[in-house]
Each structure stands twice: as structure tokens, then as C-alpha cells.
Design goal:
The structure holds two protein chains of two kinds. By secondary structure, chain A is mainly α. In chain A, 62% of the residues lie in helices and 4% in strands. Chain A has seven helices and two strands; from the N terminus they run E-E-H-H-H-H-H-H-H. Chain A has helices at 15-40, 48-52, 59-67, 69-92, 96-113, 135-148, 158-167; strands at 4-6, 12-14. In chain A, helix 3 crosses helix 4, helix 4 packs across helix 5 and helix 5 packs antiparallel against helix 6 (135-148). The longest helix of chain A is centred in the N-terminal third of the chain and has 26 residues, at 15-40. Chain B is α/β, with parallel strands linked by helices. Helices cover 38% and strands 17% of the residues of chain B. Chain B starts with 8 loop residues before the first helix and ends with a strand. The chains are: A mainly alpha, B alpha/beta. The interface between A and B is medium-sized, with 33 and 24 residues.
């Protein structure tokens, strides 16, 4: 008989669906983790170049961040460590629903600071062709799916953490 | 959620395996990250980053200005003169209000905070001399403005009708000369002979003879002369010098210097002030040293405000822009005066009555150093070509195309036929498609450089310099260097010796263009052949 996994109070999924979701979680996590680590190990990285090229509703805010050294430093830290921690959590399945929310917020900011809308021209060279939908938007919704269909309590460290928390009667 | 009873060992083991199921993937990630870091480290180790012996960037020595309070005068308070005086700490109320507002409206416009965070140079602007009354009054205004890095000025300025009267004032220690070029030599010689130290804007002179006059007068009197090539304060040039001194480019036989501009302003078609007329402008004094004289009228006004367009007052591209690029190269490679100079060009775009070329090229030959320096300029295309120092092993690209931060940075690219790097290129450690060294000062700092002309100067490293990662105006550093040297009796960075080299080189190029022949420098008899 095929095994079913309950991933929330209403949904059960089969093995293939579970593994598919876990793989999605791990590769999205991998991508986000490396985005963070790559910035962490590059001493010259700064969010300034991205922010300076910002268009649309948040361009004013972006300019304000760039022109204030303290805000820019905070922005750099939030990006580097936010991405690293979120990626780590998704890969290993620790607090992964919170990681999904954090990831959606962060990547939504990237999208909103420079959306590929009609009439907006960016000076950064793009690595693909996008019209309104870009990879950031797709990743946001991938994270949304992972949030709706959590898997880390089945495959991931949350499984152990949850058992431990259950034993202590904290859950 | 998890319904398995915790006491069942098998279930516990399965729980454990499922909990850690993605850990191997994380391990795989770390293993790949480690491999990548190792590969990057190996690459970096073999790139110039580690070949270059790192030196700490120069720091501004703060306490020198605590010495004697210096009284300075400005002769020629026009566009450049007002910038120089700002470098000394004095701006008009109009400028500080405007710059403050501009910074409030656009926080990326940093002219105001950059000005206000300049060092207090412990000097006063006590004399202003300008042949246009409106400018002279602005200079007086600047001397009184208490909005500045030094607060309320100790003394304010007196207006002088001409430079002779100003030089008679014994309270003045030093003068800044920012008149058109045809007046430079006369005022410099008069100034040093009356015991004043001099900061003179570039190009130093209009003719070869004037260069000799200035050199000899400054040497005889022992006064301190600083020529206005503020690139001498840009640390990217010092870094470039270190790299070349270490032989990392290999033998260099060709250097290409370029200028690209494409605007009316960039071609010296400057505004004629609405209040300019025969009453507010002393035209006769203005044209006193010029070879050709004309009566005051609309043509005279054009010549007064757009003087760079005529050989009567300046040397066009030679003194204005070639002098900058030559001096940068002289700073980096210690070129000195070439043996031969040949120039050509023409008035191909701005057929507006000017007599200086708008497309112009110079070839400088240095047979003793096995080197040619090419300079090529156009005022009708912005296709910025950058400056290239081409070695057998690597090429250094400064400004323009280098994209190394866009603010006076540079990059170095290995040559695929290099001898020095052959092994590294064969092993794939050096990829000749990518720079092996990049210097981008203040890459984490953001500059709101807007206009095309500002961008031109920023690319050439003439707008900003960096000290301890902080952005400073190199003009301020250059003025500070001059005042520090006056107090200490030292020679400044663009002293009379290098100023003479600049002036003679520019004069050779100008003479070659005007006579249509190759001009030779005879260093023994100190003459042009």
C-alpha cells in the first residue's frame, strides 16, 4: 500500500509528492544559501550597486539607503546574513516555514526594488529575458508553495526538533 | 504530525535518518564551496593582487595647518578660481546655499558635505583680483562666508584692480593664479619676485619662452610653486606607479592617452555673463599680453569668456586636457620632456570662429626609453577610449574603458603572448580575457556624479580622491599640499621641476601643430629645435 504523509491538518501527500517538495526546498535553499555565502566571502560586495539601479516605487527609498552609510551597512548585513541563514534553514529543514516567510519577504524586496516592468530600463546587464515575471517572482512563489506544503517535519531537522519539543510538552 | 511512539528503536532510527536526510546535500554544498574557495585562492595567489607589494594609502596629515596662519590672494576668480578657493575653504554664500539645498534634495549630491568636511587649512582669503567686477565681488563674498570648514574667517578680502597692486601688499603670503594662460607667466614671475608663493592653474604657460621665464624666476627666488594638476593627489596614480615600478607590465614601448568630449561646455563654449560690458570688464588689461589685439565689442566678449578657443590666450586642447593626461603619465612613469613632438589635427566640428583645433593628436618620442606616447583628442564624440600603458606582459587601462570604479581607478590585463606570465597563462591560472588586477578606490562609496563633463573628470580621477576610504576633493588636497609645503619649506607634489616638464612638453606639441613640423628638445642648450 502506498504510504501517505500528512503535511498539515487537511492534506496528505504520497511519497513522490513529498520527495518532489523536499527536492524543491533543498535546491531553493541551496541557491539562497550560496547567494548569501558568495556575498559573505567577497570583501568588495555591497548592495549599493543594486540599490542605485533601483527603479519604480522603491527607488527613492533605495537612494536614501545608499546615501546613508549606516543604512547601507545594515542593508548589506541583512542581505548577507538573511540569505545565508534562510538558505541554511531550507536545506537542512530547520524552522523552514519561518525561513520560507523570510525568503519571500527578502526576495519580494529584490523584485519590488527592480521589477522587470514595461518601460523600466536597467543599467545592469540582465542574464535572461523577462517581462513582468522574472526568476525572483518565481522563487517567491516556490517559497509560498513550500510554506503551504511544509516538509521539514517529515524530512529535515524539524522532525527531531518537533519530537523533542513534543516530549517537553512545548508544542 | 508525528504519531510514532518514541520508545520504538526502529522508529526512532527512521526518525533520525529522515531528520538528517538532507544533511548529505548540505555536506555536498560545503565540499563544493571549499573546492571553489580553494580554486579562487589559487587563482588570486597567482594574480597581481598578491604580486603587488601592498602599500598603505597616503593619509592626510592633520596637524600641519596648526602652524603659521597664511594669507592668500586669488588672481582670477572665475569658474576654476572659485573651485581652487573652495579647496582652500572659502565658498560664496550663493554656492553654499545652493550646494546645501542640492544635498537636501538629492542626498547623492555630496558637494556640500565634501566641502564642509575639508580640513581647516588655517588661512584667510585676503585679496581678490579679477578683471570682471562681478567675479571680483563674488570672491570678496567668499572670503567673508562663515559657512565653511574653518567657520568664521579670520580676515576678509580686499579687492585689487590688478595683480601689481595685490603683490605690493606685504601681508599676503601666497597667491593662487587662475587667470587665462596668457597671463600666467607674467603674474608668476612678478609674484615670486615680490616674495609670494604661487599656486598656478594648468597649463602652466602659453609659450616655450614663458616656461623658461617661470622656471628660472622660481628657482632664483626659492619660492614654492605648485602647478594645478590635482591628479598628483589621486592615490590610484601612486598605486599604478607601484605596479609599473615593479615591472609587472614588462617592457612598455607604447602609451596611448585620449580625450573624448562631446558637449558645448566641453568644447569651451562657455556662457557670456549677462552683466558683462565695457564698464564691468577691463578688456585692455585682459588682452595686454596677447599677440593680437581687438577692440572691445561682442567678439571681445566671446574671447573673454571662451578664451580657450584662441591661441592668443591659451593653447586649446594642449594646455587644457593634454596637460592633464601627460602629467598623470609623468607622475606614474616619470617621463620627463620628450626628445621629439609632432602634432596634427584641425577645426573639424566647431566652426565658430575659434583658431584652436577640436580634433588634435600628438606623438611624443622618447628614444632613450624606447617609448612612444600618443595622445589623441576629439571634442565631438563621447566614445571614451581611456588611457593605456601597453607593456609586453600586460596593459594598464586607466579611466575611460577600465570600468574600475569609474573614479580614478584602473585595471591591468595580461597579454596572451606575455613572457612573464606564460606559465600561468598556459596553466589556465591567468585568463587574459579578464583583468589580473583591478583598483577601484571607494568602490563601496557612492558618488552622485551627474553631468557628462563631471563624469569625464571623474573617470580621469580628477574629481575625487580617497583617503582612508573617505572621499575628498583632490583640489583641496592639492591646495593643502601647497600650503603645508610653504609652512615646512618643502617642495610640493607638482613642483617647479615637473611643472617645467609639463610646460615644455605642451609647448613642443603646440609649436609642432602651429608650424607643421616635428619639434626637438635640446636639453643642453635648453631650446626647441
Amino acid at each position: 500500500m502506498e504510504s501517505r504523509h500528512s503535511i498539515n491538518s487537511l492534506t496528505t501527500i504520497n511519497n513522490a509528492q513529498l520527495y518532489g517538495l523536499v527536492i524543491l526546498r533543498v535546491i531553493v535553499g541551496w541557491h539562497i544559501l550560496y547567494e548569501g555565502v558568495a556575498k559573505l566571502i567577497n570583501p568588495y560586495w555591497s548592495s549599493a550597486a543594486f540599490l542605485l539601479d533601483s527603479k519604480w516605487i522603491f527607488s527613492g527609498l533605495a537612494k536614501a539607503i545608499v546615501s546613508n552609510p549606516a543604512l547601507l551597512t545594515i542593508s548589506d548585513y541583512v542581505n548577507v546574513w538573511g540569505l545565508t541563514i534562510i538558505g541554511f534553514c531550507l536545506m537542512l529543514g530547520v524552522f523552514s516555514r519561518y525561513a520560507c516567510i523570510g525568503g519571500m519577504v527578502l526576495i519580494s524586496l529584490y523584485y519590488l526594488f527592480s521589477p522587470p516592468l514595461l518601460g523600466l530600463e536597467y543599467s545592469r546587464p540582465g542574464e535572461g529575458s523577462y517581462l513582468i515575471v522574472n526568476k525572483n517572482l518565481i522563487e517567491i512563489f516556490a517559497l509560498y508553495i513550500l510554506y503551504l506544503f511544509p516538509t521539514s517535519h517529515k524530512i529535515g531537522l524539524d522532525r527531531v526538533l518537533q519530537t523533542k519539543l513534543n516530549l517537553k510538552g512545548l508544542s | 504530525m508525528s504519531n510514532e511512539p518514541p520508545h520504538d528503536q526502529n522508529v526512532q532510527r527512521r526518525d533520525f535518518i529522515k531528520a538528517l536526510a538532507t544533511v548529505p546535500v548540505f555536506g555536498f554544498f560545503l565540499a563544493n564551496l571549499w573546492l571553489k574557495l580553494k580554486k579562487d585562492a589559487l587563482k588570486r595567489k597567482n594574480l597581481l593582487v598578491d604580486l603587488v607589494q601592498e602599500k598603505k594609502p597616503p593619509t592626510v596629515i592633520k596637524n600641519l595647518s596648526n602652524g603659521k596662519h597664511l594669507n592668500i590672494g586669488i588672481i582670477g576668480y572665475g569658474g576654476r578660481g572659485s573651485h581652487l578657493v573652495r579647496g582652500a575653504g572659502f565658498a560664496t554664500r550663493g554656492w553654499t546655499d545652493y550646494a546645501y539645498k542640492a544635498n537636501q534634495e538629492n542626498s547623492l549630491n555630496k558637494a556640500y558635505p565634501t566641502f564642509m568636511s575639508q580640513d581647516d587649512l588655517n588661512c584667510s582669503l585676503v585679496g581678490v583680483c579679477d578683471l570682471f567686477d562681478v567675479n571680483a565681488d563674488l570672491g570678496i563674498d567668499a572670503s567673508k562666508n562663515d559657512v565653511g570648514p574653518g567657520g568664521t574667517p579670520k580676515y576678509s578680502a580686499k579687492k585689487y584692480k590688478n595683480h601689481h597692486e595685490m603683490l605690493e601688499n606685504d601681508d599676503i603670503d601666497a597667491v593662487i593664479i587662475a587667470t587665462p594662460d596668457h597671463w600666467h607667466s607674467k603674474i608668476v614671475v612678478d609674484a615670486v619676485k615680490s616674495g609670494k608663493h604661487v599656486y598656478c592653474e594648468k597649463g602652466l604657460t602659453r609659450t616655450f619662452q614663458e616656461a623658461l621665464d617661470i622656471h628660472d624666476a622660481v628657482k632664483e627666488t626659492g619660492m614654492i610653486l605648485q602647478l594645478g594638476h590635482q591628479n598628483r593627489q589621486v592615490e590610484a596614480n601612486d598605486k599604478a606607479k607601484e605596479i609599473i615600478d615593479q615591472g609587472l607590465l614588462g617592457p612598455v614601448n607604447l602609451v596611448e592617452l585620449t580625450t573624448n568630449r562631446n558637449s558645448q561646455w566641453g568644447a569651451w563654449v562657455w556662457n557670456i555673463h549677462k552683466d558683462a560690458n565695457s564698464k564691468t570688464i577691463d578688456w585692455e588689461t585682459f588682452q595686454e599680453p596677447s599677440p593680437n589685439k581687438i577692440r572691445f565689442g561682442p567678439d571681445a566678449l566671446k574671447r573673454y569668456f571662451r578664451w580657450r578657443c584662441w591661441y592668443d590666450y591659451g593653447t586649446g586642447l594642449s594646455g587644457d586636457l593634454f596637460s592633464h593626461d601627460y602629467d598623470q603619465l609623468n607622475q606614474i612613469m616619470g617621463m620627463g620632456i620628450p626628445k621629439y613632438a609632432s602634432a596634427s589635427g584641425g577645426i573639424y566640428f566647431y566652426k565658430d570662429g575659434r583658431d584652436v583645433p577640436d580634433v588634435w593628436h600628438v606623438t611624443l618620442e622618447y628614444p632613450d626609453r624606447d617609448m612612444t606616447v600618443l595622445y589623441s583628442a576629439t571634442l565631438s564624440s563621447n566614445n571614451s577610449r581611456g588611457n593605456r600603458i601597453m607593456g609586453h606582459d600586460a596593459t594598464m587601462i586607466l579611466g575611460g574603458q577600465s570600468n574600475a570604479g569609474g573614479v580614478g581607478g584602473f585595471s591591468v590585463e595580461a597579454d596572451r603572448e606575455s613572457t612573464q606570465y606564460r606559465e600561468r597563462i598556459e596553466k589556465g591560472i591567468i585568463n587574459t580575457k579578464y583583468p589580473i588586477y583591478n583598483y577601484s578606490p571607494g568602490s563601496k562609496q557612492i558618488d552622485g556624479v551627474t553631468s557628462a563633463t563631471s563624469q569625464y573628470f571623474a573617470n580621469k580621477g580628477l574629481l575625487y580622491a580617497y583617503r582612508d576610504g573617505k572621499r575628498v576633493d583632490p583640489t583641496h588636497l592639492h591646495i593643502k599640499d601647497w600650503l603645508d609645503c610653504i609652512r615646512e619649506g618643502r617642495q610640493p607634489k607638482c613642483n617647479v621641476d615637473v611643472a617645467f616638464e609639463e610646460a615644455v612638453t605642451c609647448a613642443m606639441a603646440t609649436e609642432s601643430y602651429l608650424t607643421g613640423r616635428r619639434v626637438e628638445w635640446d636639453p643642453i642648450k635648453r631650446r626647441l629645435v
